[in-house]
Design a protein that fits this description.
about 55% helix, about 40 residues, about 0% strand
């Protein structure tokens, strides 16, 4: 977290950097959707 603070390009506004639990299947779905969006399909 210290590295992020020192390397941040803009002022640190009220950004919530807490961890969130996301199921792996949901991450895979988002990843695949982004891949297809970038490919233009």
């Amino acid at each position: 977290m210290d590295t992020l603070h020192h390397c941040w390009q803009i002022p640190m506004y009220s950004i919530d950097l807490r961890k969130i639990v996301v199921p792996l299947a949901e991450l895979r779905e988002r990843q695949e959707a982004m891949l297809w969006a970038e490919a233009g399909y």
